[in-house]
C-alpha cells in the first residue's frame, strides 16, 4: 500500500533518458535568438569567457546572496611557484524582513554586512575589486551588470525585478564610500553556479560545469560561442547559466508531476514557477515528504490514522529531518525521535515506512538532477566531436554536501545515463564566493591585457581628421591619374580598360576565359544563354605554374599557358572549335584597346 503511493515517484532509466532528451531540446530552444523568448530554460549568457589561468594574483572580495545565509569573503590569490588561494569568510543571516522587504533595504543590508566584514578583516580604506554572487536569474549584457528576471526560492523583494542588481549594490556601497568607510569596485556579477565552476576550475582545469543542489538547484557550463545567437561573435566559449529550475514551467514535465508536487506548488511563494526545482531542492523536499505522510495518515496507512497538529503544519518537516532519517545506521532511531517530536507516536513499521518515503523522494531528486546534468554533458561531448569525454563537474549546495546518500546516488545515475563521459565530481571548497572573486580576478587580468593590446594598437586607430586627410589625398591622386599632363607622375595610375558597358542579358554562346594572377592558373569554359531561360554555366580546370616558369622568360610563361589551354580543351572534349577568349591578367597594364 505504501509503494502504491510512491509508484509515480519512482523513475526508470528509460524515463530519465526521456527527461534528458526533453532537457536537451529545451537547451537548444533557450540558446536561439528567435526561440529564447518562449523558452522556459533561459540559457542566460554570463559573459564569463575564460577560466583562471593561474596568473591571477592579489586581494579580492566577494559577496554571496541567494541561499539561507549571506556570505562575505576575502580571497587572496598567490602565484608562488604554483597557483593557490586563501579564503576567509563570515556568514550573516538573511531574515524574512530582508528577503521579503524592499530593494533598498536588501542592498543596504548587503552593503552593511560587507562593511562589517571589511572592518573585522582590517580592509577598510583599501580599494578592492569585488565579485557579486547573485543566485537568481539575471539577463546580463556585460559581466558587471545584470537585470533580475524573477525571484526564486524564499526571496520576494519588492522593486528589484527588471532592474540592474549590480547597479543597486553599487548605489548602496556608494553611501559607505561617501562616509570614507569602504571603497569597493564591483567588477563582476556572477550566478552561484558560475562561481562554483570558477572555484573548481581554479583547482582543476578540466572543470567546465558548475552545479548547485541546495536550497535551490541550477547548473552552468561552457558553451561554444557559435551556438549562442543571443550574443555577438562566434569565436571561443562562454559560460551559460541554464536556470534549469524553471524546466517544466510550460508543462513539459506534467506527466511526471504527482498530486503531491501540485499541492506543494500551490502552497509555494511562486505557484507555477520553478517546477523542476520544486522536485529537487532542499527547500521543498521536506515539505513534499510531509504532504505524502499526511495523506497516508489520513487514509489510515500510518500512525493508526491519527493526524497531529504538527503534521498538518506547513514547514514542520525540513530537509535536515529527511537527511537524518536516511542516515546509514542511526536512521531508524532518528526517524522515531523526529516523528515523536511531531506528536505522531510511531510503531516500528511506521518508522520503516516513513524512512522509505524519504528515500524515494530524495532518490527522485538525485535522478532528475542526473538526467538534466547528463543532457549538459552530452552536449559538451557533441560540441567537442568526441566519442568519449573526460570532464569535471564543480558542485556545491547543502543537499549534496549534507545528505548521507545523495552524492553517491547522483554519481551512479549520471554514469548510467552517460557511459561515454568519464566525470569527476569536485566539491567546491569555499563555495561560489571564491569563484566570484576569481571571476573578478580574471576580469582584472583581462582588462589589464586589453589595455596593453589597446596601447600596442593605438597607432592603427586613425581619428576622423586623419581619415579626411587620406580621403583628400586619394581624391587628388585620382585626379592626377586621369589627366594626360599629370598621369606620368601619378602614383595611382587610373589605367583605362576600354570596357565601356556591362552585360545587358542579350549575350549568348560559348566562351573561353583565362585567369592568371596567383600561384595557379585557371582555364574556364563559360556557356551563356539569353532570353527567358537566361543562365550562365561554367566549367573550369586549375593548373599549377611551376616556380621556374613564374620566374623564367615571357616566352616560357605563354607557351605554358597555351599548353594548359590545349589540355583543358582536350579534357572538355572540344576539338577544332573557334572560341572567343577573355584573359584575366592581374597585373598593371597600359592598354591601347580592349584586346591589346
Automatic annotation (TrEMBL):
Keyword ATP-binding annotated: yes
Keyword annotations for this protein?
ATP-binding, Glycolysis, Kinase, Nucleotide-binding, Transferase
Q: What is its EC number?
A: 2.7.1.-
Q: Which ranges does the record mark as transmembrane?
A: none
Write out the GO MF terms.
Answer: ATP binding; D-glucose binding; fructokinase activity; glucokinase activity
Hexokinase N-terminal domain location is: 2-202, 453-596
What residues does the Hexokinase C-terminal domain cover?
209-442
Q: Which GO terms describe its biological process?
A: glucose metabolic process; glycolytic process; intracellular glucose homeostasis
Q: Which SUPFAM superfamilies match?
A: Actin-like ATPase domain
Q: In which pathway does it act?
A: Carbohydrate metabolism; hexose metabolism; Carbohydrate degradation; glycolysis; D-glyceraldehyde 3-phosphate and glycerone phosphate from D-glucose: step 1/4
The reactions it catalyses are:
D-glucose + ATP = D-glucose 6-phosphate + ADP + H(+); D-fructose + ATP = D-fructose 6-phosphate + ADP + H(+); a D-hexose + ATP = a D-hexose 6-phosphate + ADP + H(+)
User: GO cellular-component terms in the record?
Assistant: cytosol; mitochondrion
The first-level EC class reads: transferase
The entry assigns this protein to a family as follows: Belongs to the hexokinase family.
Q: What is this protein called?
A: Phosphotransferase
Q: Which organism is it from?
A: Cettia cetti
Q: What is the lineage of its organism?
A: Eukaryota, Metazoa, Chordata, Craniata, Vertebrata
What's the encoding gene here? Hk1_0
